[in-house]
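Lab notebook, bench 4. Still working through the backlog of constructs that have no structural model yet. Next entry is a single chain of 181 residues. Request: give me the structure tokens for it.
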Amino acid sequence: MNKRQGSGIIIYNPELDAFVIQLRDIPPFGWAILGGYVKKNETPDQAAERELKEELQNIVFDRQNLQYFKSYDERPDGFVQHIYEYLTSQRFEPYEGLPVLVCGEGADMNLVTRTQILQARLKSERDILDNLYDSIPNHLKNSKVMRAFTRYLVKRIYTPEPLTLLWNCKKIFNDYFVKEH
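Model written out:
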């Protein structure tokens, strides 16, 4: 049996000691690293590259900066999450009125420090917004109006301060912080 797989990316700027995180606009809602499912006939590292380019549209991508970090296969459903690090010197500064981080997917992106991550509160696995979203009929979930409303709600509920990280992302960052560079 093939296990479902995903690839996640820790985007790190060592000069700023800062990380790019994404506010998810589908359950589970909350702040997380970028990533997504590995598609059929795709390797986890190909999925990581694709997801990085899709989700953070103003990234100056260099394949040499994408390195495997660790895999997690602790979920009861057998899902395997492959984590990569992407080291960048890109500062994500505003350019001619464009936003700092150009979000291709998700409700928002943010550049956060190691301290903010360490002080982040953990989001429970499910909350009222997750349950509310699940109760909406599928044909309505994908409408432009519903997607815009969901993004609005998520931004209002999960404001950047204090940071609310999904539980698995907190674990991933903790493992990343103890690894030697």
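Notes after review: The chain is about 30% helix and 30% strand. Residues 107 and 151 are 5 Å apart (CA to CA). Flag for follow-up if needed.
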